[in-house]
Structure formats: structure tokens, C-alpha cells
Design brief:
By secondary structure, the chain is an alpha+beta fold. Helices cover about 35% and strands about 25% of the residues.
Amino acid sequence: MPNIKKLLIANRGEISLRIMRTAKEMGIQTVAVYSEADRLSPHVKFADEAVCLGPAASSESYLLGDKIIEVCKELNVDAIHPGYGFLSENAGFAKKVTDSGLIFVGPSPESIEVMGSKLAAKQAVGNYNIPLVPGTEEAISDIPAAKKIAAQIGYPILIKASAGGGGKGMRIVENEAEFESQMDRAISEAISAFGDGAVFIEKFITSPRHIEIQVLGDQQGNIVYLFERECSIQRRHQKVIEEAPSAVVTPEMREAMGKAAVGVAKACNYYGAGTVEFIVDDALNFYFLEMNTRLQVEHPVTEMITGKDLVKEQILIAEGNPLSFSQKDISIHGHAIEVRVYAEDPKNNFLPDIGTLETYQRPQGPGVRVDDGFEEGMKIPIYYDPMISKLITHASTREAAIERMIRAIEEYQITGIQTTLGFCKFALNHEAFVSGNFDTKFVERYFNPESLDPTFSKEEEELLAALAVEFFDKSKKELVQKPKQEKAATVSAWRNRLD
């Protein structure tokens, strides 16, 4: 059984630091890679060794799989952890890693390939009685045939890129009149984003919740699920707030979803940490969406409620160790919430913002965790995802976790750039979130940029300005007329003694 002594993290920022911390606790040396834009990043300084891959653009640095493998050979590295994003779900890279004699801390290349295609994934789980959204089981490009299928399914329908993710290559079609134009756009987006124009059709669930199940599997065939994460607060089909467990999932539903997730993992002989995503309708029927064959951004909430270090488990599994616990050994302890702190302006359609972290002070206290990769004075680079950090709170109940998160947000001091902290506080205070009665259309239904920055009418602004002038004039007059001895009387006793 191989023993990992030196680990290279093929990533950057907060996830690199997150992985390095666990590796160090396990007595494993760490190697960081970085681009020229990240040369001063904390993950570079934290690692035992660090190597520059190239210029800022990820295509010239973090995506250079062959160069990363070369670095491993030069530094006698045993294994590569890809984190998330970049090369983490690249089956070709995973195969090159294993073919070169290195350990890939993740699933097999075959599992990545199967689950990397939404169509292949749907076909793979067909023998496991997994609930699927009604739709086509293979790619379709014939417009008349596609229209016929859409009519049978019933509008609205969703055209999705088979190789898609993050909302790219995805188009909602409300009626037949707009079908052809939306299909052309979906194919064009899919080719541009993924180099693969294959699309398929699904029934569009109008009020969906996004709920996912964390799974762990070892190379001996044992698979467990570590309960669910609620990920329905999104903007542009990307998550902003996650929590575990979900406010609406019953014990019976949790078990059913967990068993379905294990079935998905078995369908592709999965090992390592993975996440099975489901879409849930307003009647709480759930349908398999896709499987992410990597560590998720939101994995900390699962760690908080289960007490399991998912990175440690990934490394142990990669070494060939069997799972040290079974399904009956895992239970839910309390409630955890994560907010993603993005350098984005919620008042400007959540567009990314750039600048310098002039002030950067993290919240602290019981049940508060911050996973980040920045320090005060650093610049937010324009080349990568705009996430600054992940703020996580844990408490005994959902209500207490919400209250703790609101306190932590208020304590988090960031100036120099716009962030999503204000939006997250708005969402956590909203009745829909507090009650648990929300879905992926939360932003569309409830969020107004004015909610973060109350505005005044012209008359109100003029009145406030007049009051300010009056207050200033009054204060100035009192200061001029104040007797000299009164000023002296304000000197403290200890100062008088010194004089």
C-alpha cells in the first residue's frame, strides 16, 4: 500500500491552503504551484516548496498538466491533489498522472469521464433505479425531431450542454416559437465553453431546489453518504449560500436520496470524495442531475456536521486504505451554513469587482471558520474566480447557525472592493430563507439592489442636507462661545498629575 510523503496541490488560493493544512497534520510535505500573479499568495508561503508555473493566465500556468507532472518528478512528489476547478475533473490529466507513476488524489479517470458527460452519466445510472428528469437519453441536433420530443415532454423545457456546468450551454425554452433560436444558442455556447456542441432536452422544473449528497468511496468498493447540502441560493446558476442539513429534507427523504447517491457512485465504480447533485421540485420529488467527481467548494458544511475531514479521507483512500467507518457510524451534529464571499457587486448584477483589500479583518469566535487565500493589502486578480473566501458557521440548531452567521458577517471587515457579504446578510434575514421556503429563484423573486443601500427622494435628500448644515453651524457656534475654563476642566486627572 503506497504511503504519500510529499503532495503537490495543483491549485491556488483557499483550497490549496485547506488541503495543505490537513496534509501537514498527516505529516505529509507539501508543494505549491503558482502563477506570476499569485507569487505573494499565502498558499505559496505556507507550502514546504513552491514552483512558478508561468504567467497569470490559467492556460499558461494552472492548466499546464504536463508541466505540473514534470515538477512532481523533479521534486520527488508522490501524489497530486487537484482541488476543484482547473484540472480536477479532467480525465486526461488524471490518466497522465497515474500513467506517470504518481497517485491522483481523486477518482479513476474512467469515473471522471463517465460523470463528466451528463448524457453518459444518465445512461450509467439507468440500472440503479435512480429518479431522472424526463427528457432525451442521448444528444440531439435534429430540430424537427427535437421539437417533437419537447412537445411530448411539455413546455417549459431545458436545453443543456452534455459537457456543461456553471449554467453555460443551458437555455430555458418557454414555447415552440423560441425553440430553434434557443437551441442554436445552447449549441454555440457549448462549443465555445467546452469544445463539445452535444446538447440534450429535459423537462424544466419551474420551482426547483438544488440539493446534493456528499459521498465517499474506497478502492475496495465500500461507499457511504454523508447527508445532504442545500445549495439553492444562487446567482447565474452558481451557488452563494449553502447549508447542511436542508431545512426541508425529512429523515425518510434523506435516506432515499442517500441510497440513490450511493447507487450513482456504484454505477461508475467510484472511489474518493464525490458529490451527487439532485434537483427537487415543489412536491419534494427529487431527480438526479449530475455528479461532481471532486471536492466541492461547499464541503466545509459537511465536515462541520459530521466531524469528518474530507481531505484526510481523500488522501487515505488514494493511498488504498479502506474506509474507517460505515454508514451507521455517521450522524448529523447541529447545523452549518456557508456563505461565499465574492469580489462582486450585488448592486450591479453581481458583476466581478477588482481592487485592493485595503481592510481585511476576519470574524472570529465560537463556531466560526474562514477558509481563504488572501491577506490585507493584496490585490484581487482579474484572471481567476472572484471568490475571496468561504465563511462558515456551526451551531446546535439552524436558527443559532443563522444568528451566528449574521454576527460573523457584521464582524467581517473588507474595504477596497465590493463583496457579496451584504447580499448574504440580506438573504439570511429574509423570511423565505428563515422559514426554509425558498428555491433557486430566490434572487430573482426577492432581491432588489436597493435592499442593500436605501435611497431617499430628492425632497428627503434636501431636508437631510439642510439638517446637516444647521447641525454644523450650531456646533461651530457652541465651540466658539465655550468658556476657556470649561475646556481646561476636561483635562483628565492623570494628566494634571503629570503637569
